[in-house]
Amino acid sequence: MKPLIPSAFAVLSAVTFTTPVWAATASSDAQQRGYEIAAQSDRSDRGFGVSRVDVMMHLEDASGRKSSRSLSMLTKEVADEDKGDKSLIVFNSPADVQDTKLLSHAQILEPDDQWLYLPALKRVKRISSANKSGPFVGSEFAFEDFTAQELNKYEYRYIDEQQCGEFTCAVVDRIPKYENSGYTRQRALIDLSHYQVRKIDFYDRKEAHLKTLTLSDYQHYQDKFWRPQTMHMENHQSGKKTTLVFSDYDFSVRLSNRDFVKSSLK
C-alpha cells in the first residue's frame, strides 16, 4: 500500500522526500523473514506424494441451524515449487450433493484450473478465475481456499511473535500475487516449534476482517507429515461457520495423473 501524503506537504514541490535507508532495510528484512518462515512451513510437509482423507463438513448458519456433508479429498503432490498440486474432492452424502466433484489444478500466478461436476445436470462446469472467491457448495470456504496454499502465490511480511495456545507463533502477513483473489491479505499464525499454521485471518477487498480459519488437533503421520484433524472457518460478516473434521489419512493410496483429469469427473 502506498503511503498517504498530507495535502499540506504535497504543495512543497521544491522539497524531495525519500524513504530512509533504515526503513527500507527494515521492510526488506520483514519480507525476507516472512518468506523464510512460510517456506519452512510449506517444506516441512513436502514429500508425501499422494494422499486420501475422509472429511465431515459441518455447516452452521447465523441462526444456529446445522447440517452435515460427507466427502473425500484426494491429492497428488507436484514436487516443483513453481507448479501447484492437483486435488479432487468428491461428495458422498447427503443425496442432494452426492457425487458432486471439484477438480483443482493449482497454479502459481496464473489462474488456477478448477472444474465442478454437477451430477444432477450431468455436466462439468469450469470455474472462472473471477468466481474463485465465491463460496464452495454453500460453505464458508471459497473455491480459492482449496488451491491457494502454494508458497509462491504470495508475498510475505513478518509482523511479530505472539503466544497461540501452548506455542509461540510468528505472525506473518501474506499478500496474494495472483489476480482475482477475494482477499487483500491474510494474517497467519505459524508455530515456531513445528512450523504449522494455527490460524489465518482473511481480509476482504475492502480490507475488512472477513473470516477466521482455526486449525487444530494436529497429528504426525509416518513421523513426517503434520495434518490438522479440524479446520474451523468462521465468517464474521455473515455469522456463518463451517467445520471440516478429517479422519483416516492414507498416504499409500494408488493415484496417477489420470485420476486428476477433467474427463475422469463423469
UniProtKB/TrEMBL annotation:
Supply the InterPro entries for this chain.
TP_0789-like
Keyword terms, alphabetized:
Lipoprotein, Signal
The segment(s) forming the Uncharacterized protein TP-0789 domain are: 85-266
Recorded superkingdom: Bacteria
Query: Where does the signal peptide begin and end?
Result: 1-23
Which Pfam family is one of those matched by this entry?
Answer: LolA_like
Protein name, UniProt field: Outer membrane lipoprotein-sorting protein
Which species? Answer: Pseudoalteromonas ruthenica
Q: What is the lineage of its organism?
A: Bacteria, Pseudomonadati, Pseudomonadota, Gammaproteobacteria, Alteromonadales
